[in-house]
């Protein structure tokens, strides 16, 4: 075979890459907001699945604090806190909306990880730095996005809205 034919065959084989069929769903009624105390620690859970050949996945949690006028107070993403190695997984987490320093804990993870709280770096909408913990008081709701990113490609995201009560 000539070199151009070999290059064409290699290009065609590379285009057959499998895109992973990935899903994520909160284990609550996601179409209705959940009311919760701002200072409470809330336990939440979501189900995620990876298609065959997807390998493992990084699950990221993105938080967006919104005020009563639907303006974004701040937002941030915690990546590398949750992983998935099996085809299906139920992930149990704890969230503390009033604490940026102890915001997320993966309760159903390995013991060494399930005891560790993760910090949320929550940036202002204008990109001019991070909010201070006292600025979170303006937020009347918190939107949590669970995003599953498999190593083999593909993505799935699901949002949950929490109404923050004093």
Explain what the structure shows:
It is a single chain. This protein has 166 residues and is mainly beta. It has one domain (18-165): Immunoglobulin-like, CATH 2.60.40. Helices cover 10% and strands 43% of the residues. It has helices at 3-14, 111-114, and strands spanning 22-26, 34-37, 42-50, 57-66, 72-84, 88-95, 104-106, 141-150, 156-165. The protein has a 5-stranded mixed β-sheet, with no helix packed on it. Strands 1-3-6-7 form a 4-stranded antiparallel β-sheet, with no helix packed on it. Strand 4 (57-66) and strand 5 (72-84) form a beta hairpin. It is globular, with a radius of gyration of 19 Å. The chain starts with a helix and ends with a strand.
Short summary:
The chain is mostly beta strands. It has 2 helices and 9 strands.
Q: What does the secondary structure layout of this molecule look like, with pairings?
A:
Layout lengths: L2 H12 L7 E5 L7 E4 L4 E9 L6 E10 L5 E13 L3 E8 L8 E3 L4 H4 L26 E10 L5 E10 L1
Parallel strand pairs: 2-9
Antiparallel strand pairs: 1-3, 3-6, 4-5, 4-8, 6-7, 8-9
**What name does CATH use for the topology?**
Immunoglobulin-like
Q: What would the average pLDDT be, to the nearest integer?
A: 87
Low-confidence residue ranges: 1-15
Largest sheet: 5 strands, mixed
Strands side by side in the biggest sheet = 2-9-8-4-5
Question: Radius of gyration over alpha carbons?
Answer: 19 Å
CATH architecture: Sandwich
| 3D shape | globular
What is the number of domains?
Answer: 1
